[in-house]
Amino acid sequence: KKKKKSTPASPTVGRGSSLQRQEAKLQLQQSQTEASLKRISEPGIFPMTPERAHDEGTNLRTAIRISPTQTRAAMVTLIKDVVDFVDAKKTLRGVEDIILTAQAVEQQHPTLTIEELRLACEGMKLGQFGKFYERLKTAEILECLCTFEGQRASHLERKHTTYSVSRGLKPGQKVIPHEPETLIQVISKRNPP
Fold it and tell me: What is the value of pTM for the model shown?
């Protein structure tokens, strides 16, 4: 019997497509970040709804990784606009305070999109998160962002629980909607009274 010669696998086999996918993903993220930064810098009232801002926006963490200088500058500009608009007696005074606030937003709310940050800042200007009573410091801004995230939670729940699985269905077979159960419902089914 003759033995087949085995050739060692080339170190680049299989990696090319993975590298291409990573490069394509990076290019997509770069274009999305540029579009988001351009969108939020347009003057006037921001036309996006909170749902669209979340679904179509660029995550702060991603935007900072892709374009750190422009993203941080946009965050500082948004916060400074709020501070200037509210005109509270006890407020962020210098650029250092505003930069510190932007860093706190970056650390405590990395899942916000740039567009959501713009909407939250507009909401602060319009009083949607309550009155500031002559005080607008880092803590108040972070509290408003927590309130904003709480408001978007219902959208995220709807987005992640309303789906249907059609994989494995035969032609003509209908999809049975899935209703998520609470833990109490599951326990009561296992241990009937």
Answer: 0.69
